């Protein structure tokens, strides 16, 4: 967001690619990477990457100029600006985007496991329980997937409190 030439080059590309539901690339990813854990992780990472990229870009573009100028006036170069201004300013936004994206990641995991693998909770819920009308086990699988989402949400929340503790000074 702060480097104009990069912003001019990549903003149109991001604007074009960001709205595309990345889950539609699942068949392509499976053909290229095969049916295994790597393809599921790659698809989830692809989705989260664009969600976080947009937030970080917007956060960097919205930084108050006086923050940057005050650090520059102390003789800071690009590396120091990144370490002491951009990184601390973007960490809360990145973690918030990650926390919000946990639900999306769990949904994509469910879809990938349902249609692309023979293992995992998605496969268990749809094929091994719902498909055979074993509804008690189906609800247990849904509960397990929900608890996985909750655990990830809480983990990111704790990470946000640790890395962003400077935001809560004096509270």
Q: How many distinct helices?
A: 7
User: Could you say which overall geometry the principal axes of the C-alpha atoms support?
Assistant: elongated
Q: Do you know the CATH architecture?
A: Orthogonal Bundle
Number of strands: 0
**Strand and helix order:** HHHHHHH
Q: What would you report as the Rg, rounded to the nearest angstrom?
A: 20 Å
Strand content: under 5%
Structural class: mainly alpha
Q: Look at the structure and name the CATH superfamily.
A: MetI-like
CATH topology: MetI-like fold
Low-pLDDT windows of residues: none
Give the termini distance in whole angstroms. Answer: 31 Å
Helix content: over 70%
Q: Return the CATH class.
A: Mainly Alpha
Average pLDDT score: 86
Query: How many domain modules?
Result: 1
Major sheet size, sense and barrel closure: none
């Amino acid at each position: 967001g702060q480097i104009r030439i990069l912003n001019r080059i990549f903003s149109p590309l991001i604007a074009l690619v960001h709205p595309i539901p990345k889950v539609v690339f699942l068949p392509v990813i499976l053909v290229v990477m095969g049916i295994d854990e790597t393809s599921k992780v790659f698809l989830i990472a692809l989705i989260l990457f664009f969600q976080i990229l947009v937030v970080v870009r917007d956060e960097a573009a919205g930084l108050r100029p006086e923050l940057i100028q005050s650090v520059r006036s102390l003789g800071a170069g690009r590396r120091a600006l990144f370490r002491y201004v951009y990184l601390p300013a973007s960490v809360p936004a990145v973690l918030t985007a990650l926390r919000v994206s946990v639900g999306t990641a769990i949904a994509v995991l469910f879809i990938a496991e349902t249609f692309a693998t023979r293992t995992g909770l998605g496969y268990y819920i749809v094929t091994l329980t719902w498909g055979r009308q074993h509804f008690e086990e189906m609800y247990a699988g849904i509960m397990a997937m929900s608890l996985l989402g909750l655990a990830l949400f809480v983990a990111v929340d704790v990470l946000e409190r640790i890395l962003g503790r400077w935001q809560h000074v004096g509270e």
